[in-house]
Amino acid sequence: MVKAKMIFFYMVIATLATSLAKGASDCNISDTIADQQCFGALGEPLIFHLPPQRNKTSLKKNRNMIFMVTDNTKVLINKYRNDFAFFPNGTFRLYNTTKRDSGDYKLETYSSTDGILLHIINISLEIQAPVSEPVVSQECLSTEQKKVSCSSKGDKVHLTLTLDNNLLIQSTPGNTTEHHHHSVTIRLYGQLTGNLTCHVQNNVSSKRTFIILTSCTGSISLPSPVIAAVIPSVSILLLLLALYFGIKHLNMKRRPQTVNEGNTEDEIIYSDVRVAYRSKTRPNTHQNAT
Predict the structure, then answer these.
(1) Collapsing DSSP states into helix, strand and coil, what is residue 247?
(2) Are 98 and 140 in contact (CB under 8 A)?
(3) Residue 263, H or E segment
(4) By the 8 A CB rule, do 111 and 55 touch?
(5) How far is CA 238 from CA 16, 229, 235, 245, in A?
(6) What pTM value is reported for the model?
(7) Which of 19, 49, 119, 145 might form a disulfide with 30, Cβ 3.0–4.6 angstroms?
């Protein structure tokens, strides 16, 4: 009866460990003595699958002891109790990983009888930021040419752009382990159409985005910064033209009359005629008086 209860208890614990490990990364060192390279997703759990506990085993990071197992007795160093946990199914869990957890670990195994060192497994652990959902865009430069881009964030991201499963362009992961923005861009024939797929991945995650690639028509789509610069310029030009024609219209209304307008010219000619007549009659009057 007691044995049956213990079996049931371990089954519950194993189920709990499996559910907690959902979405977690794994580092399996249960059936090997070779050195291992392991990866963990930033902010997510990491599960170590340990070898069978028949001997004395210890895990160290640099020279700091994390845990020791002797005769099925597990000792977890106090300062790591909030970060690590043992499970009866032979797994060792690292909670919510950070970049500080990256580094070199050593799993040392000693003989349970005489304490002789049997073997050392060197574990290189790298914590990476998962990739973000890829953003895919297309921009028509003309009816004959378009620009297609794909971008994503994460650590050591590898991007692949395909059209109807045919490779267009791909990038190689960088050496940086910082959370950076990565992108690829390619120029294509403007009338090319099909199913465009961007696949991004690193050692801890993978995501895809699909769009339909359409043909470029006669109207060219301008980038947003260009539109933002053109609209104010057109507004200023229209304002200057309106001001110019308004001033011109006012000047035409206020222009003074010239001497050629109306009947002024007839009056001036008539005055000249009268003056000429008087100048001719005066000598005759003087002669008669004499």
Answers:
(1) helix
(2) no
(3) none
(4) yes
(5) 72, 15, 5, 11
(6) 0.62
(7) 49
